[in-house]
Amino acid sequence: MRTHYCGDVTEALLDQDVEICGWVHRRRDHGGVIFIDLRDREGRLQVVFDPDREEAFASADRARPEWVLRITGRVRRRPAGTANNNLGSGQVEVLAHEIEVLNEAKTPPFQLDDTDVGEDVRLRHRYMDLRRPAMQQHLVTRARVTSFMHRFLDGYGFLDIETPMLTRATPEGARDFLVPSRLHAGSFYALPQSPQLFKQLLMMSGLDRYYQIVRCFRDEDLRADRQPEFTQLDVETSFMDEGEITELMEQMVRELMHDVAGVNLPDSFPRMTYDEAIERFGIDRPDLRIPMELVTVSDLLTDVDFKVFAGPARDPRGRVAALRVPGGASLTRKQIDEYTDFVGRYGAKGLAYIKVNDPTAGVEGLQSPILKFLPESVVTDILARTGAAAGDLIFFGADRAKVVNESLAALRVRLGHDLELIEGEWRPLWVVDFPMFEYDEDDGRYYALHHPFTAPKTDSVEALKAADPESLVSRAYDLVLNGTELGGGSIRIHRPEMQWAVFERLGIDAEAAQEKFGFLLEALEYGAPPHGGIAFGLDRLVMLIAGAGSIRDVMAFPKTQTGTCLLTDAPAGVDNQALDDLHIRVRRPQKG
Amino acid sequence: MRTHYCGDVTEALLDQDVEICGWVHRRRDHGGVIFIDLRDREGRLQVVFDPDREEAFASADRARPEWVLRITGRVRRRPAGTANNNLGSGQVEVLAHEIEVLNEAKTPPFQLDDTDVGEDVRLRHRYMDLRRPAMQQHLVTRARVTSFMHRFLDGYGFLDIETPMLTRATPEGARDFLVPSRLHAGSFYALPQSPQLFKQLLMMSGLDRYYQIVRCFRDEDLRADRQPEFTQLDVETSFMDEGEITELMEQMVRELMHDVAGVNLPDSFPRMTYDEAIERFGIDRPDLRIPMELVTVSDLLTDVDFKVFAGPARDPRGRVAALRVPGGASLTRKQIDEYTDFVGRYGAKGLAYIKVNDPTAGVEGLQSPILKFLPESVVTDILARTGAAAGDLIFFGADRAKVVNESLAALRVRLGHDLELIEGEWRPLWVVDFPMFEYDEDDGRYYALHHPFTAPKTDSVEALKAADPESLVSRAYDLVLNGTELGGGSIRIHRPEMQWAVFERLGIDAEAAQEKFGFLLEALEYGAPPHGGIAFGLDRLVMLIAGAGSIRDVMAFPKTQTGTCLLTDAPAGVDNQALDDLHIRVRRPQKG
């Protein structure tokens, strides 16, 4: 129906006849002539209607925004001084000979150029929202990312293999979406949270290298920027150790960023242990673009009278840490109060600080409500250890280590943005040597920090059984980019006796292990190869690359924070017959 | 952990040291030496252990089938006369220097070489079944097919765009799988039967060219070779008519078959109308490799006394058709009885036939129980019209047209295989000009033959409203290969008034249309472009290309005919808390 996309009509086509199809982006009369900006996926093109072509002129005169037109005409250079250098097609226009109205349109619910439209309206009329060039570009970027992944992994002999969506509920994970079975009354499928066990089974099947770009599901309360269904690039390989896997995946990400975004990542991504990341940044996915670090000062404070510091400093599970903010001395009282509220959300009970006006002038050069509680020598040591310079400010966190780490990690990122301290564009990082287990105080038990199939560093079942659970380190690795976790993976357990031992340390007894993971434990008995893999969160990766403001902006049809599709109005009620067929009934919420 | 795949070790590596990993396929002692055939995804390799390397020899001596080994050794030529020309690595062997047992294995539940293992056992131990080279090859073929599709469609500017899996129930389709919502009590998501409406909405969003290799779901009773979840290649494009779409898709299939299977399909696929396909083959997906056709003989039989023929011959909804079977005169009475039973499954009440021993000898040259009921001139006309030759047999179908078509279509395929009449390897066909509507006698209403969004050939809403529903032809097209429907699609309705009119003809009133399809009808009001597309069944396509016996053999983890995963034992019961969270209860089947 057309010879060219609107955006592809350039000076190379001067004096040629073209046929184009698209949407009326704007129509205006000017000096008895009608101008229509016609828009398609590739761009916009100015079309001119002269009154001497009566029929075409009359149709153009009727046309309104978002009408769909097919136009035949000749490409000509725009008159001098009227070129639009912002458009690829901005040097030319098309003089229309014929016009066909392919469809009319009602007045749009919002202007495509309007950047201040509520997200609910955008989602309800998603077919309009997706006509915006920026939104189309996000989806184009997403398609380029997945296309690159297919090419890269196909090239390295990875097989794209599909795993089931109707599967068995995952114990030990987040809440599953369930699907009632019609043929098996009272039984349910679960939608996969990840293809973890299936990809391990594929390795046990000898398929050697697997990948899949796959939808995953979690029925969790949706925090900002989470979706009930999300997509991951899932990779698994046999006979490779963590060095080989991370090297290959690093190469993929490096080439991907170059190919899709023109970004040059470093030749070798830095590595950092989990312990170091927590110590220096309070978090296992530090944004290395922010030139601030946490500095432990507990040892300097164990003997001070100031209980707020001395208590956590003496507590083995406590921490006192300082965060030097370059130039932070200019922060106002009001700003500091706001940051105090901010860290309060992470459980911090306050936010002590010292403003450093002149570090050479002793306490006279400082300004702080806590100076009176601290010996001068301690203050001097803190200044020296943090490297404070004139004009800096030092914030303190003093509490259980978890609270200090979470609050100062968040504060660090917030300050980095607020004070525009961010350096460099892209800072990737591998975080390694994660703990195997994490104690949950509420449940009074250990959980696997990654998942229960992650291999420990030790090959010895006896060592695993004997060690302090908190001291055990796993063969897991996370790839972090600018403070976002792009992906995470591990070497998996491939010997049945080690898997049993890990279940035991997680407090899963033999009967429960058999009930929940019997098929995996059995498969491990039949010659499982050493294997490992990784999964990347596609939505977040594309969001970073596309520079989108939310993951909803890189998904065609996302859901709201209550899991609703405003366009189709899903979820919805269904008729009783359907429920009868599935052997279920709706249980109405009880009042009162 | 290795330098080469087992299957990649060839004479090019003679006298080099290699490291290989894999499974013990076979182990044997011969003349004091141990031979292990080591297997990985790429093939098998013979490894030799000499007793003078004591440690390696002892480990090799312990090894059993399916143990996982890592071996270091030197490649050498096999002794004269011991080469295995069936293996890529069959000219060489590896003299082992070192061996590492990566994992042991219990005695496998079945021998990988055993071709006579029950499917239940194979599915229960799928990780063993998938170690068979044939099964691995099927999954490799599948990966090559999807890889090709990505490359082809990316190359033509199609965007790989994901559509939701948690969506709204589809009225007018098969039964949906439902997913109870936790956040919206009493509401349900449905898993998509296809992304039909979303891909149309993407066209209305101006995204121009879309594709997706996407999981789809139907909660139907599973006939042989159906799966509750299946995969389709889903394509949609704007501003292309059916000629352009089928041409591009034909090119894709042609290049795909060449690239993946080395098959050369014709430069231009033949086209046939739905009516012609039904007339000549009784079915809209004829296998053109079978050189037999149905021939209508109703007009010759309206006046005969033989009611079995005359009744359907006179009935406007009846049909009498002949099927000439080349060489069929050699069929025995017992065989003919079996075919009679066979067509009975399709509702045929009998299977009349005439054996043609000598077509020049009048009725003397024929053999048939029905000759006595038919005038000789009629018999002569039938012989002439069917082109019967000596040694042929003519079968007859006489009943309602639907019964005749279905039974003779099935009989034709069965005879084609039984009598080895199949000619040529690959015979593609486009079937076009489908009816818009199909009357369902049970429900007493019309249904859309494809789906209710399929455009009619007429652009006139008035013509659509006025015409006999059975006379209306759609802009749908199906691609058939060797009697299998590979894909089907259509140009869609893009004007709201036409969509309303089609709903009306389907007996869907305005209120129901608004309730079920309101968002689509609204989207059509805002400038929907002309658009159309197609969907290919990936599982079946791969099955054809791979020469697999069932679609289960081209899926990594298929389900049984009752929708069970024998490996993971899904679906399964869930605890009451999970059901409470979802606001549902299981309704136990009522006894008696």
From TrEMBL, chains A, B:
GO terms assigned for molecular function: aspartate-tRNA ligase activity; aspartate-tRNA(Asn) ligase activity; ATP binding; nucleic acid binding
Domain of life of the organism encoding this protein: Bacteria
EC number(s) stated in the UniProt entry for this protein: 6.1.1.23
Region (Aspartate): 196-199
Coiled coil: none
GO CC terms in record: cytoplasm
SUPFAM superfamilies to which the protein is assigned, alphabetical: Class II aaRS and biotin synthetases, GAD domain-like, Nucleic acid-binding proteins
Binding site for L-aspartate: 172, 218, 450, 492
Class in the EC hierarchy, top level: ligase
Aminoacyl-transfer RNA synthetases class-II family profile domain segment(s): 142-558
Chemical reaction(s) catalysed: tRNA(Asx) + L-aspartate + ATP = L-aspartyl-tRNA(Asx) + AMP + diphosphate
Positions with a binding annotation for ATP: 218-220, 227, 485, 537-540
Predominant subcellular localization, coarse grouping: cytoplasm
InterPro entries found in the cross-reference section: Aa-tRNA-synt_II (IPR004364), aa-tRNA-synth_II (IPR006195), aa-tRNA-synth_II/BPL/LPL (IPR045864), Asp-tRNA-ligase_1 (IPR004524), Asp-tRNA-ligase_1_N (IPR047089), Asp/Asn-tRNA-synth_IIb (IPR002312), AspRS_core (IPR047090), GAD-like_sf (IPR004115)
Subunit structure: Homodimer.
PANTHER family (alphabetical): ASPARTATE--TRNA LIGASE, MITOCHONDRIAL, ASPARTYL/LYSYL-TRNA SYNTHETASE
Task of the protein: Aspartyl-tRNA synthetase with relaxed tRNA specificity since it is able to aspartylate not only its cognate tRNA(Asp) but also tRNA(Asn). Reaction proceeds in two steps: L-aspartate is first activated by ATP to form Asp-AMP and then transferred to the acceptor end of tRNA(Asp/Asn).
Family classification: Belongs to the class-II aminoacyl-tRNA synthetase family. Type 1 subfamily.
NCBIfam families linked: aspS_bact, PRK00476.1
Protein name: Aspartate--tRNA(Asp/Asn) ligase
UniProt source species: Spiribacter vilamensis
Gene: aspS
